[in-house]
Write a structure and sequence with these properties.
InterPro entries: DUF6790 (IPR046740). It holds the Pfam family DUF6790. It comes from mine drainage metagenome. The termini are far apart. The chain is elongated. α3 crosses α4. Helix content is 81%, strand content 0%. The protein is mainly alpha-helical. The chain has 8 helices and no strands. It has one domain.
């Protein structure tokens, strides 16, 4: 059991992505409300924003701001005061993610777009470190590198799904968002 918990923590972006999917499915399964395409899409988007943006970036904030030496070691880098700045940027992404979970599509786009630029930039950096410095540290390759690429793609796909589901409603219903 301890090794399973460690695996979940070591791969927290993937864990939180899967948690968001499970919570969305549970939320839809437990509701008595009609499961319209828009409700299904918005439920998955909401839990994605809460887990994969809000909670994941909050964890990143805590690690880089308060456990910088550990975070640096996991990535395979030397500790740096810059990690605190990465941490506070992550806190900003986390806050926008939480607010966007209960906002409209525009705020949802903002909550995915900023982290997408950060994560895809990080993926490029991790790839460069892998090739140039042969950095195979756990936080540089594997699930971390994979989720740096995957999480924004999932976010944009969920936004597109929500936009398509919303566009099927009448103009009057859309104006009340």
């Amino acid at each position: 059991m301890a090794s399973l918990i460690r695996l979940a923590f070591d791969n927290f972006p993937l864990t939180l992505l899967l948690l968001g999917v499970l919570l969305a499915m549970a939320s839809l399964g437990l509701t008595r409300r009609e499961r319209t395409p828009e409700r299904i899409a918005s439920t998955f988007l909401r839990w994605f924003l809460l887990c994969s943006v809000g909670l994941s970036f909050f964890v990143n904030f805590v690690f880089h701001s308060f456990y910088g030496d550990l975070a640096a070691r996991l990535i395979g880098w030397a500790p740096s005061p810059f990690q605190y700045e990465v941490g506070t940027a992550s806190l900003g992404f986390a806050l926008v993610g939480v607010f966007a979970a209960f906002g409209g599509l525009g705020l949802g786009l903002a909550a995915v777009l900023g982290p997408a630029a950060f994560l895809w930039g990080a993926a490029i950096g991790h790839g460069a470190q892998l090739q140039q410095a042969h950095d195979y540290a756990q936080g540089n390759v594997g699930a971390m590198l994979g989720t740096d690429i995957l999480v924004p793609l999932v976010g944009f796909a969920l936004l597109a799904w929500q936009a398509k589901a919303q566009s099927r409603r009448s103009v009057f219903a859309r104006s009340r968002l």
